[in-house]
Amino acid sequence: MGSTAIRVALAIASALAGSVVVAQHASAQDGRTEAPYTSTAPLADEVIGSVVSIAVPLPENVGPRPEQCDRLSYLRWRSAEGPAESAAADRIFVAQPGIFEGAGAFESVARNTVVAADKRGAHVEFWALDRRSNCLEDHTGVQAALATGDFDTATDYYFHDAEIDGSRFAGYAAGDDVAWLAHVGLEQTLRDQYDVLRHELPDPQLRREKVLCGGHSLGGSITGFFAEWDFDGNAHTLDDAGFNQCSGYFALDTAIVAKSPAPMGGSFPQIPDIVKAPVDAATGAITGAMPVLALPAVINPETTNMLALAGLAARLDPEGVNDLVERLPGNPNVDWTLRALFAKDAAMFATGDPDVRTLNATNEAVLGAILDDNSQPFGFLQASIGFITGAPVQDKLFPVPSTPEVLGSGLFGDAPKASPSVYGRPEVLYRWLDYDEVGTAESLPDESRYTTPASEVSSINELARNLSEPPLDFTEWYFPTRLPSDLALLSAASFATHHIHRDGVARHPILMLQGSGGISLPESEHPDDLPIVLPGYNHIDVLTAAGERNDGRLEPVSEALAEFAGR
Q: Model's pTM, two decimal places?
């Protein structure tokens, strides 16, 4: 083994050793493990983050699946000054992720909420559940690169068959490897949440008094069904009723309703099919034709892993130039995805001229262009994380121009879109202004046409960490299409046995937090539900917003959650 390989192996072993020891120490006869993970987040010293895994086998009729898929996992955040046992916490938030989303997406809002509650004299925990399908993901490359500090550690693993600690990337699962997910839909997702709660908090009375159930995006609909579900099918035995596992509900740019998410806006038939498909997927128009959602471009396992790699590049070397773009494979999926996300007009999308890969940009600017509300075309993937700088920009006209109709549709967010206008010139470098740098001396002259400090709320530095550091992913490689398919077929006979308590949501208090630029939401049916609208927030911001806003106020989502927990 060469000296470089030895240094890489030692770095990985050193970084992972602590977690491995803790996991082995935490193992019990019931197969439960819990391992704290290292974070560079601003609140890392105040909030302990850990990944919990428990053995809960799937029913045999699900069919063959990997051994690790007979386990349930979640991320747990708790106060460093609080009790070590969950049962001793004052309140426990339990969150369901949205579409294409994993537990790691809750990293910022969870830490901020724990600290906000601490300041109120309460110790709360925040749990983010991971869907079964995420057991198929391979985070080896990202986690190893965090240990070595070298981005090539990850890209060599995923793109060039490099070995890490005896493992090689086996490629993205398909065919028989994912066939079992055709049997994992709404009913199993609800049962998984119920089993986690019963395993971790065996006392039914404690669950009724301390657990707050909720979620983000699609997680609101899942929580609505959870509240109305009866897990033994007997309406007269209420200890197992979903509403009796919760003392209240919280909705993060969603609504707690037991129905399929409402369509997010109008129809734009002029959009190419390759761009329209992700919108259809997010609104539930694409259902169970295949076990997992793998579109030809934009949304599939390779591209969702690409988001984690973009975050990793910006986390390791924010001012480095084009580290991800230069290393991406040249295949149709990647090429069309780059065009769909970055094309400034229809001609550039159709012809590939200018070539997206000739844009000269820092790693932060690449990440910003992928997810910022002034660039990312799809509303359900947008965050307000700053603005591009360093060279001229122009109006982005693809996939649709920023007309009032478009910006009011709920499909494309509420922010005007901008695009770099200089390609193929190495001497021109696009950089990124973080959310709290917008409006400073480094801003572009026409920046105010697109954004203001008041509409920027999430730090790109924190987003980069969230995409790469947590052991459970921010993005979801394998979204099970059975889940939205079930939500669209509420009259299915298999649901009648369990979807019994139609007043389950109305039985408890509810907190609904909605971004002013978030997606269009289904109407809430809760009698006391008054949505709190958050100016400047987009769909992802309710999870990723920085702890302090540009006007000096504390982050309102976590403050509202902490206040709700104290009621």
A: 0.93
